[in-house]
Amino acid sequence: MIEDKNQQRTALEKLGEFGLIDHLTKNFEINQKSTIKSIGDDAAVLDFKSKQLVVTTDLLVEHVHFDLSYVPLKHLGYKAVMVNLSDVYAMNASATQITISIAVSNRFPLEALEELYAGIETAAKIYDIDVIGGDTTSSTTGLIISITAIGEIDAKDVIYRSGAKPNDLVVVSGDIGAAYMGLQVLEREKEVFKVNPKNQPDLDHYAYIIERQLKPEARRDIIELLKKLEVKPTSMIDISDGLSSEIMHICKQSEVGVAIYENKIPLDPQVISACEEFNIDSTTIALNGGEDYELLMTISQEDFPKIKGNPNLTVIGYITEKARGMNLITRDEQSVPIIAKGWNSLENQE
Amino acid sequence: MIEDKNQQRTALEKLGEFGLIDHLTKNFEINQKSTIKSIGDDAAVLDFKSKQLVVTTDLLVEHVHFDLSYVPLKHLGYKAVMVNLSDVYAMNASATQITISIAVSNRFPLEALEELYAGIETAAKIYDIDVIGGDTTSSTTGLIISITAIGEIDAKDVIYRSGAKPNDLVVVSGDIGAAYMGLQVLEREKEVFKVNPKNQPDLDHYAYIIERQLKPEARRDIIELLKKLEVKPTSMIDISDGLSSEIMHICKQSEVGVAIYENKIPLDPQVISACEEFNIDSTTIALNGGEDYELLMTISQEDFPKIKGNPNLTVIGYITEKARGMNLITRDEQSVPIIAKGWNSLENQE
Question: What else does UniProt say about it (chains A, B) (predicted)?
């Protein structure tokens, strides 16, 4: 599908490696005060004065993390940045810089990479981050994107996964499960397209869940909201692999247990209807779906009045003593152990 | 060849992604004061107080950057770290932390990744750097390694590529061309092995050039030596793509020209004899070979007495006005323009 979109096809080897980097990064602006020297030397130079830094990195591999038959390259560039910024915000930090490395086979013309970088540039502009470096090389097969994100934070503000205490409330931002159901719709349309390429699918009533899959937003707004509400969570993590796997990380590192109420998990109506259509249990999707990039946090009970009624934050359970384990309280008030499946990229691959 | 070396083969999917990361990183020690929180949260947390930071990243792709039929995984892990540290030292900084991401196909058993990480661990120990994070995922084909390295430096000590001035001396550390000739020997042995797998090659008299290819060292010692000699180069870059391409970067960014003396370029006797054996011009190799990870710098003429006679540093030419261009002064005193070929991973690939 990529090939269809581009009238022009410029072979990458025409530019050479340095030419390609110059070409793709020429529009990137530098806005962060901490960026002293960006692309163009052996390394970037940064100055964070008295601030602490957070550093996180992610690798996205074609056919494993994305399928270019239905993911537009511009969206992919945007999402690749979001995946990393989400980890920075999950530390309660401000994202400031990223490096981008790509390996790409010669089946991609220059115009395809321009699309990818246009998405990266849009993300950098909206989230006010500087692209300070990277590496561009060839791959023998598809596209690989490696991003490292850097953020800054006052030492006293860092939020780890390890700070949850018994009786803390478990809070989730936004709603979850949508990105996974969006993926199911896209996968189904891909199969339909194979059989009947002329079919024009009407995806309007899946718009929200498809957007959540293709163009997620990292929740910088939640970090700002928490500051405004004067709530400092006791622990926080972003939901990339699914609620069950993320709450497991918090419980393990905080040495606590948890009770999550099934009927409190925030689901968008499109997720509920898509689950019905696909005949999948919506709680299973919420627990194991992944790629929502919402924030999962624990807050002290005394902070509850500050978040009560806020449409962006939902209390879904509470932290218990470790001995009580991790449990889901079902709609019919049964307590069942939560098993973290999450998303395991090492399974089911060649 | 990898498969032969490992009696035991543990499938990666048995550990899962989190189990794999835990397993591979359990031996990594934290030694840097600036590392506040390492692997195990959404991001690592670092504190550099009043220091500036340098950040650099590199992506290594199987079949493009390395061939596992003759590169032992342990050496590959070591070299992947060196490639990045070399960029940190080229800024005159101290390397402090790295993140490591790998994508790997299921043809690799756990034991192969343990070898790779053993090499990374050795490099981290010797060069006193902390491994603070990373990502582990599957690939549909071979092995991909993405490393981001971080270093610290006082603002006043940073050395850019852009500071060279006319009449400055051009200095190179160690000797160059060896890594490329080591590669030629290894490639030839691979062909011999295909024809006659029982052949036991005697590679003793290629030991130095093969080691330069398989297990290069980043020149931290040169950074320390320069401090001891009280020489602050006016510009510096590491030689990863070949002398001609690196000097071109300095000339371009410093807006100067250069004259390099062919007869001053430091070559190891093994490089000279291998070039004779392969019937290749040794100057061409020195100019375009790459992967030497030596440091190329320019120093003020008044610093010459401080480095004179030092076996680690060789003056190979001088900086000129930009209008005079980039020239090689040949052994017969002809001046020929230097054309930067370097190593272009985007060419000659599928």
Answer: Reaction mechanism of ThiL seems to utilize a direct, inline transfer of the gamma-phosphate of ATP to TMP rather than a phosphorylated enzyme intermediate.
